[in-house]
């Protein structure tokens, strides 16, 4: 059975709620939705978000209030849920949710932004290294692994409007892009690029410069798949969906 799996950096789940998030969720009706940058603790949310009709909601929050955080809305309860790269680990910045189902593992991650300082860039690259080690372990076991989220890096020049001008900007630096190469080499497929090789397809636009109206953007959000075979039937960007500086992305996936 083929179902839609979606991912969206909402840039504040409570802000997105005020802009129609829950109505959109009901209409889109994905089997799974991973959200990033929720900026909230579960006890700060109302029942419309913690218990939307037809879904169970899972949250991983940062220790720092109003920062980072991820969530997953699931139509079917998973076998287990992790909030770190290890079963009993809880990531202090709330960047990871891992849901294991009988035939696949769904991982929702909000990768760090490296632009604030040299230390944060180092933190981002270290996070990439931990993620790759975690992923290799699952891939080696033969798990079908789906990873969605805001990777905070545009992989190729086709993935942003002004590649030359941003080669020294975090999000398109050679050392960041090299990690995405390592993910591909480890067995991941960038699902969107499997179906679409055209430029001008972005998932984030700078709000301060009204870049979205001019489609001056970056493709920072990905669905990566490993050991999926032909189970990914399509991958897409929902650029028409408003409510954040990012737009949702998704795949059509055979749940088997």
Description:
With 256 residues, the chain is an alpha+beta fold. It has a single domain, classed as Endonuclease/exonuclease/phosphatase (Deoxyribonuclease I, Chain A, 4-Layer Sandwich), CATH 3.60.10.10. The protein is built from seven helices and 14 strands. It has helices at 13-18, 21-28, 47-50, 118-140, 174-185, 191-195, 211-214, and strands spanning 2-9, 32-36, 56-60, 70-74, 80-82, 96-101, 104-110, 145-150, 188-190, 204-205, 217-218, 221-226, 232-237, 249-254. A six-stranded mixed sheet has the order 3-4-2-1-14-13. Strand 6 and strand 7 (104-110) form a beta hairpin. Helix 4 (118-140) runs parallel beside helix 5. The longest helix is centred in the middle third of the chain and has 23 residues, at 118-140. The radius of gyration is 17 Å and the shape is globular. The termini are close together.
Keywords:
six-stranded mixed beta sheet, globular, Deoxyribonuclease I, Chain A, about 25% helix
Which secondary structure elements does this structure contain, and how are they paired or packed?
Elements: E1 2-9, H1 13-18, H2 21-28, E2 32-36, H3 47-50, E3 56-60, E4 70-74, E5 80-82, E6 96-101, E7 104-110, H4 118-140, E8 145-150, H5 174-185, E9 188-190, H6 191-195, E10 204-205, H7 211-214, E11 217-218, E12 221-226, E13 232-237, E14 249-254
Parallel strand pairs: 1-2, 7-8
Antiparallel strand pairs: 1-14, 2-4, 3-4, 5-6, 6-7, 8-12, 9-12, 10-11, 13-14
Helix pairs in contact: 4-5
């Amino acid at each position: 059975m083929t179902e839609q799996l979606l991912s969206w950096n909402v840039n504040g789940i409570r802000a997105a709620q005020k802009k129609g998030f829950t109505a959109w969720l009901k209409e889109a009706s994905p089997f799974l939705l991973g959200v990033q940058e929720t900026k909230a603790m579960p006890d700060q949310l109302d029942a419309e978000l913690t218990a939307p009709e037809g879904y169970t909601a899972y949250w991983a929050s940062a220790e720092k209030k109003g920062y980072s955080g991820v969530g997953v809305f699931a139509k079917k309860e998973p076998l287990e849920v992790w909030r770190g790269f290890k079963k009993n680990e809880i990531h202090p910045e709330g960047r990871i949710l891992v849901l294991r189902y009988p035939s696949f593992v769904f991982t929702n991650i909000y990768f760090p932004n490296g632009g604030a300082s040299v230390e944060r860039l180092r933190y981002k690259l270290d996070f990439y290294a931990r993620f790759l080690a975690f992923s290799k372990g699952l891939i080696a076991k033969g798990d079908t692994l789906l990873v969605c989220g805001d990777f905070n890096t545009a992989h190729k020049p086709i993935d942003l409007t002004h590649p030359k001008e941003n080669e020294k900007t975090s999000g398109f630096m050679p050392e960041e892009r090299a990690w995405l190469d390592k993910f591909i080499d480890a067995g991941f497929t960038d699902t969107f690029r499997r179906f679409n090789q055209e430029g001008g397809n972005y998932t984030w636009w700078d709000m301060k410069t009204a870049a979205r109206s001019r489609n001056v953007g970056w493709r920072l959000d990905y669905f990566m798949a490993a050991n999926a075979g032909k189970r990914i039937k399509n991958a897409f960007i929902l650029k028409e969906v408003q409510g954040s500086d990012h737009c949702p992305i998704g795949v059509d996936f055979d749940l088997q």
